[in-house]
Design a protein that fits this description.
- Helix content is about 40%, strand content about 15%.
- With about 170 residues, it is of the alpha+beta class.
- The protein has a 4-stranded antiparallel sheet with strand order 1-2-4-3.
- Belongs to the nitroreductase family.
């Protein structure tokens, strides 16, 4: 089977991670794939902020959990978080552009032996006062909106089985 199609079929979202950090080589390959996601008119409205500092990840996790209304860890102990943001003023397709980056990150991660999961609520986290402070601290300037948190690491659980594809997934006319 074609390696790209194999990756797309086999990748699963993982919700329990080992503390072990992924390698710089793996991370750089994953980020490179994210930077090659298609964007409206090739304008590249998204950016990726890599967070591997444990304290910052804990803060982001708490902010995310607060939006969700829980005290659990929505990042499942993952040692790396890639925050995907997109500039709303760059293109009207900024949400789609950022979503394609998220997809590329997760698929590339699987292809290099790293597990991943898309964690929502980045929009709310970075619309908050503290979220805006973090963006400023990180040097992110512009009208950026949170698209998603791509958590990365090595799973500490069984690999999930794929659900059967629904019957009407594809409609041919």
């Amino acid at each position: 089977m074609n390696e790209t199609l194999k990756t797309l079929k086999e990748r699963r979202s993982i919700r329990k991670y080992k503390k072990e950090q992924i390698s710089d080589e793996q991370l750089n390959l994953i980020l490179e794939a994210g930077s090659y996601a298609p964007t409206g008119m090739g304008m590249q409205s998204p950016i990726m902020v890599v967070v591997q500092d444990e304290e910052t990840i804990k803060e982001l996790s708490k902010m995310n959990a607060d939006v969700m209304g829980t005290d659990s860890d929505p990042f499942y102990g993952a040692p790396t978080v890639v925050v995907v943001l997109a500039d709303r003023g760059c293109r009207p397709t900024y949400v789609e552009d950022g979503s394609l980056v998220m997809g590329n990150l997760m698929n590339a991660a699987h292809s290099v032996g790293v597990d991943s999961c898309w964690v929502h609520r980045a929009k709310e986290v970075f619309a908050s006062e503290r979220g805006q402070e973090l963006l400023k601290k990180w040097g992110v300037e512009g009208d950026y909106v949170g698209i998603g948190h791509c958590i990365l690491g090595y799973r500490d659980c069984e690999y999930p089985e794929a659900k059967e594809r629904k019957e009407n997934y594809i409609v041919r006319v």
